[in-house]
Amino acid sequence: MDQQTVARVAALARLDLHDAQKKMLETQLTDIIGFVEQLSEINTDNITPLSSVVDSELPLRKDEVTDGQKKEDVLANNPEENEDFYVVTKIIE
Amino acid sequence: MTDLTHLTIADALKSLTAKEITATELTQAHIDKPDIYNAYITKTSEQALEQAKESDARYQNGTAKALDGIPLGIKDLFCTKGVRTTAASKILENFVPPYESTVTQKLLESGSVFLGKTNLDEFGMGSSNTNSAYGKVINPWRSSTTPNIEYVPGGSSGGSATIVASGLAMGATGTDTGGSIRQPAGFCGIVGIKPTYGRCSRYGVIAYASSLDQAGVFARTVEDSALLLHAIAGHDPKDSTSATQPLPDFTKSLTGDIRGLKVGIPKEYRLKDMPEEIQKIWDQGAEWLKSAGAEIIDISLPHTKSALAAYYIIAPAEASSNLARYDGVRYGLRVEGKDLDDTYAKTRGAGFGDEVKRRIMTGTYVLSAGYYDAYYKKAQKVRRLIRDDFVSAYEQCDVILTPTSPSGAFPIGEKEDDPIKMYLNDVFTVPINIAGLPGISVPAGLDTKGLPLGLQLIGKAWDEETLFRTADIIEKAADFKGLTLNIRQAA
User: Which residues of A60-75 are buried (b: 16+ CB within 10 A; e: fewer)?
Assistant: First the structure.
C-alpha cells in the first residue's frame, strides 16, 4: 500500500481525503490488508464461494405496481429542490 | 413503591394488565431519568407520552396488545417514519425517513412506546461506540477498582445496551453484523440476542453488510428478550432474504429443563493470551449447565482463526457497495464541488467519519480490478469452510458455549489508534454472522475491575428456542444483579 494506491482507491470510492487522512490510511490499510492476507494460507481448492447463508432460492413476485402517488415522500429529503426536480451541478458543458 | 424503571417487561405487563400502574406513569418514569451516558441521539418524549396515552386507553377497554405500554429505545439505524434517523453519521444529519422499518412497525403494532433513537457506531461500524458523529457513549457501569475511568459500552449498538442496562428503557432494538448486539450486551451486563439470519426483516434498516446484518433485541432478562424477539421476527415480503420459517412462541421455550442437552465447547476459542477471568467464567458456565443435567462435549471449529480475516474482507466489500448511495443528490448532506464527481467526493469526504472511510477504502480495494479473486472470492470460500465447521459440530452437539468477548469493557480511548486491535474484540462473535447462526449473550459475572462479563450461546439455524432455554439456566445460576449494582447515576 503506497500513497498512489490510496489516492487511486479514494478516487474509485469518490472520497475526498485530506493529506493527513491519506497518510494515516496508508499505514492502516497496510495493516488491515496484511491481516487479511492470512487467508492465503488456507487451502480452498474445489471450494465453492458462499455469498449468502440463505439456503432457499430467492422468491419471485409478480411484476406489478403495489404503491405509488408518493411524490412528496420521494422528494421530502431533497437537498435542493426546484419544481419537483433534483438539482445537481451542471453535467454537460 | 417499586422503582418503575427497574421492572422487567414481563412484570410490567402484569402490572399494566392488573391496572396497578399506567403506561403513562411507566413512560414518564423513564423519560424523567436523565441520560448521563449520551446514549440517545434523538429523544421522542412527546410522541412517547401520546403513545402511552393510547396504550392506557387500550388497557381500559380491554384491547391491549402483546407489548402494550412498554417503553423501548430504537437503535438509530432503523428508519422511523417522521423521526430523524442518522445512523450516527453526519451524512444523514437531517434525514427524516418517509417510511417505517418493518421491525419498528411490528413493535408499534404490538403497542410499545418509543422513547427515542439510540446512539451507535456510525452505520454500525465499530466495537466501542466511540465512532459516532454525535459523541461517544459511556458505559453505565462504574468499575469498582478504577471508578474514575470511563469505559466503552461496546458497539455498535452501545446506546441501546446502555439505556437498558441503566434503566433508561425496558428494552431496545439493535442490529448485529459482527457482534454489535452481543458484545455491548456483554459489556453492559444485559441480555442481547442476534437471531438466525433471515429471522427478522431488514426492510428499513440502514444497510452496512447485507449478507451479515441482522436485527435483534436487548433486555435485562432472558424472558424479556424472548418477548421482544417474538414481536419483531417473522416473514416480510419486503425483504427477499427474510425467511418463511414458522415463528415459535419463544417464551414457551423457557422450560427450565436442559437434561440431556449436548453443549459443545470449541477448543479454538481458548486463546493463548486470553485473560484468566474469561477462561474462569467460561468454565463456570459449562459447570452450571452440567449441574442442570447437560452433557459437555469438546468440539472443534478448525477455521475459527480465519473468520475475522474473512469478515474484514466481506463486510467492508459489502459496505463499500451499500454506502455508494450516499452521494448528496437525493437526500442527506450535500457539499457542492466544481462538478458532479467532485460533489460526490466532497460530500462523502465531509459526511463520513474515519472508521467508515477506512472500511469503504478497504472494501473498494479488495473489490478493485486484479484483487477480487485474491481477496473477496477467497473470503467467500473461507466463509463456506467456516459454515461447514458449524454444520459438522452440530452433528455432535445441540448448542455451543463460548465467552462473548475476549475481555470485559475497555477504557474509552483504548485501541483507538489501532484498527486491528479493535477488530480483535469481535473474534468470538464474528464467526456466527459469517455462518448466519443465532447467538445470545447472557451476563454471567464480573471481571476483576467489577465490570460485567457475558457468555455466548450459539445455536443451530432457526433454533433460537434452545438458546433461550439454555440462557435461562445460565441466568438463574449466575443470579446476576444488574441495575442494583455499580451503575452510574445522575448527581
Answer: eeeeeeeeeeeeeeee
Bridge partners of B262? B295
Average pLDDT rounded to a whole number, residues B197-201: 97
Q: Are B358 and A28 within 8 A, CB to CB?
A: yes
- Mark whether B75 and B100 lie in a shared domain: yes
Asked if B362's CB is within 8 angstroms of A29's CB, the reply is: yes
The structural domain count of chain B equals: 2
Looking at beta carbons, which residues of chain B come within 8 Å of A91? 339-340
How does pLDDT run across B74-121, given as a tens digit for each residue? 999 999 999 999 999 999 999 999 999 999 999 999 999 999 999 999
User: Model confidence over B413-455: pLDDT tens digits?
Assistant: 998 888 888 889 999 999 999 999 999 999 999 999 999 999 9
Task: Supply angle C-alpha B308, B312, B317, rounded to 5.
Answer: 150
Nearest-CA residue of chain B relative to A77? B331
Same domain, B200 and B313: no
Does B410 share its domain with B374? no
ipTM of the prediction: 0.95
Give the mean model confidence (pLDDT) for residues A24-39.
96
**Whether residue B328 is found in the same domain as residue B421:** no
Query: E strands of B157-277, at which residues?
Result: 171-176, 191-194, 214-219, 262-266
Confidence of residue B201 (pLDDT cuts 50, 70, 90): very high
Q: Where are the domains of chain A?
A: 3-40
Answer whether B112's CB lies under 8 Å from B71's CB.
yes
Parallel, antiparallel or unpaired: strands B214-219 and A85-86: unpaired
> Helices H, strands E: what count in chain B?
15, 11
Give the active site residue among B156, B157, B201, B225: B156
Residues of A in Cβ contact (< 8 Å) with B305: 38
Residue B23 predicted with pLDDT over 80: yes
Judged by CB atoms within 8 Å, which residues 30-49 of A form the interface with B? 31-33, 35-40, 42, 44, 47-49
CATH of the domain at B96: 3.90.1300.10
The answer to whether B291 is a known catalytic residue is no
**Do B89 and B208 lie in a common domain?**
yes
Confidence of residue B190 (pLDDT cuts 50, 70, 90): very high
Q: Which three cell numbers stand for residue B412?
A: 474509552
Distance from CA of A43 to the nearest CA of B (A): 9
Instruction: State the count of interchain CB pairs (< 8 A) between A and B.
Output: 166
The range of the structural domain enclosing residue B310 comes to 305-382
Residues B125 and B190 in one domain: yes
- Looking at per-residue pLDDT, the higher value among B336 and A57 belongs to B336
CA atoms B27, B32, B37, B42: torsion sign = positive
Q: Which residues of A, range 57-86, sit inside 8 Å of B by Cβ?
A: 58-59, 61, 70, 73-74, 76-80, 86
